[in-house]
Amino acid sequence: MKNNLFSYNLVDTPIHRLSGLTKLIAFLLLTFAVMFSYDIRVIICVMIFSFYILKVSQIKFSQIKLMVIYVGLFLITNTIITYLFSPEEGVGIYGTRHEIVHLIGRYSLTMEQIFYQTTKFLKYASVIPLGIIFLLTTNPSEFASSLNRVGVNYKAAYAVALTLRYFPDIQREYVDISLAQQARGLDLSSKAKLKDRFKNALLIIVPLIFSTMDRIELISNAMDLRGFGKCKTRTWYNSKSMNKGDFIAIGISILIFIGTILVSIFINKSRFYNPFI
């Protein structure tokens, strides 16, 4: 597999040149701004900004295709479940009711519900590019060193780095086991019945779990043999100092965050934008 899910993509772009700490701060600020606001105008602006940054990062669609499919399925499922359990949630939030069509029983299609669920859908969708940018443009070791420089214990920082490195390793291991099992006649194609595909998938997951446990033990022993955790401090091979670009990125993120709060407080007088007033 040429492109690995969650793997660091080494490209020389303005986003890659930013410190890992800068990208974490920007990610948290922008994510909180989107999650706090239910103003579709603000959410769309942040979404356009995040897709622009995604383009600047030179992340190819082939790298994130699988992730986009899974996220898309989750968003669609979330939208359907939200309507099934709360078909009048939008009516309760906006205080008006404009019915388009009555479906069955307590289920009716209203403009308020459509607007609410569209806003909610875009809210979640706008966060996805931010997470992709953070994962695929951040060197795990450099990110760990950045965390350590701001006061995070180096053991915790190193654990974060190992976690980020572990995702592509797991994916490669899964692909290797899957190909080995298919070479032995295990059918995982769409031609097989759903029951058989599920059963065959378990035959991949079980050895994946055992190989994962072996890998964890191997890494733990290697760290112990090298005296990891013996000293109170440590040096880092990958370390990046904050520069002008980092401060600009953090400044832009803070402005977007503050702007979102101000719009909710002074313009909407609420977290929700109500076009039905």
TrEMBL record:
It is a multi-pass membrane protein. One of its GO terms (cellular component) is plasma membrane. Coiled coil: none annotated. The chain crosses the membrane at residues 24-54, 66-85, 121-139, 198-216, 247-267. Keywords: Membrane, Transmembrane, Transmembrane helix. It is found in: Membrane. This is Energy-coupling factor transporter transmembrane protein EcfT.
